[in-house]
Amino acid sequence: MTTMLKIILLTFLLIGTVCAMHLELLRVDDDEEHLNESLDLLEPEVEFPGMCWACKWAMGRLKSSLGTNTSKEAVKAMLGTVCDGIGFLKFLCNRMVKRYFDVLVEELSTVDNPAIICSHIGVWCVKK
């Protein structure tokens, strides 16, 4: 009888843990969705702290990794993964890349430096 009780308690514990993890994932997805909606309401001129640095970091990394291979296919492939190494600004970086993907593909095919590329998508690294 005690073995059966242990199995039942263990089962309830596992089910509760899985449910809690699922609810936590839903909460995180919901928070990100609300954040995306809030960010979309902001005017393009409004920038977040660190956006300039994140943009220049990502564009600089892409430029150095691409080297002379600036084909659009190579640029597209690298744009998908460049934000993985940025740390806590990954969300902003991914959002920037997603929003300006086509423009960035064109810009990274030029000889422009990272600050110029960032300014072309509206991320101003110098006070206007």
UniProtKB/TrEMBL annotation:
PROSITE patterns: SAP_B
Signal peptide, first to last residue: 1-20
Annotated SMART domains: SapB
Keyword list, A-Z: Disulfide bond, Signal
Record carries keyword Chaperone: no
One Gene Ontology biological process: defense response to bacterium
Domain Saposin B-type intervals: 48-128
InterPro entries according to UniProt: Granulysin-like, SapB_2, Saposin-like, SaposinB_dom
Protein name as annotated: Prosaposin-like
